[in-house]
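Consider this:
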Amino acid sequence: MAQPTAPEGLPALDAARRNRLLQDVLKGVSRSFYMTLRVLPKKLREPIGLAYLLARTADTLTDRLAGFPGQRAGSTGARLESLVTLRSQVAGPADLGVLRELSSRSVDDDSSPQERALFGSLVDSFALLESLDDADRQQVRWVVDTLIQGMEMDLNTFPAEDSGELAALSTGADLDRYTYLVAGCVGEFWTNVTTSHESSLKEWDVSEMSATGVRFGKALQLTNVLRDIPRDLRNGRCYLPANELATSGLVPEDLLDPANEARARAVLVPWMQTAIGHFQAAEEYLTAIPRRSVRLRLACLWPLLLGLATLARPARGGNWLDPDSTTKVSRRWVYRMMLLSLPAVGSNTLLRFWIRRLGRQVERLI
């Protein structure tokens, strides 16, 4: 019997393959996001989970790639070409042959089992995309395309990791743009998808809440930028703006020496304060969700609290430029936070107290 097909010749997905994609494959590439996805209302899991999987596919292409014929494995040109190919498939119509070729050349002997599962499920991911309703499909296409633009900005701005070179973003506007492309747009996407599915959000001003959601996403990405400064520098990437460093008499290479941290604080602290301001917007976003929408509130609360706790780590240690410093929140802390969130999630008073206490801790540390 011939296999049923989805639009554009992609295989139709039965329930078992859908579940594998959004459970086993997704859990393999992100345990933290998997927990967020599982707590979401069921009708939101497919568009949001699929957007994450496609974005993770693109992110993996930028990090490791077997290479194209005639190009060095992992070269910037190979990565950009693969991202362009993926973007074209996301825009549609998807081509089964192109997807299979992209999948096969994106793994090598060093690929992890999780990466193999991710690319081995690429055709299924696009089949799921085609099966979404028109509004959700349009939103997933838009946000993944925007995220890929951010990855392309990364590759076009910074040298290859093994080049021994170091480059910086030019201005604060560039950093703000980057945080929008790789995370802020997710807040916009999240707002559009949740308001279209959740009747409890029917009173929301979608435009206003989308703007607040953008700041939520920027808070999380700016936290990642500040946390990963030492590692990024050693991979040739300085996200702190060159013009702001120059005002403090610094060039990106100076940040490779932890002894320059005191001078770098003139640049680091204002961006820390910007992140805190974005987290304040995230608090408003969270508390605007009706109390009865417990699952949706938890899905926003967990990354907010984790982000603030992560932001405090480099500030507490006072070693922002030390490559040996530990900035990761412990798994024990995460589980405890999730447990404590259950009785607190229905109270805006408790949530505001918790969030603002973490925010004040960060402010005191800087």
Observations:
- The first strand starts at residue 167 and ends at 168.
- The chain has two domains: 13-149, 158-366.
